[in-house]
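U., I forgot to send this yesterday:
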Amino acid sequence: MGNASTVEEQALGLSTQERAALASKLLRSLPEFLRDEDEGIGEATRRRAEITANPDIGISFEELRERISERFDI
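Result:
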C-alpha cells in the first residue's frame, strides 16, 4: 500500500484542475459495475458538454449559493 500512499500524496499536491482531471480519468478506469445505476455520470457529462458549448447558460458559484440559501432558508 506504500505506492498508493505515495501516489495520493503526490496527487494532493496537484492543482485543483489537475486533480479533477486525474479523478475523472480514475473514475472512467473503474469497471462498469462500479458506476452509478441512475445515469448520473451520463447526465453530468451531458451538462458539462452543454455548458462548454454555451458558457452563458451557467451561473456563478455565488449565485448558486444564494439560490440554495433562498430555497432552503439557510
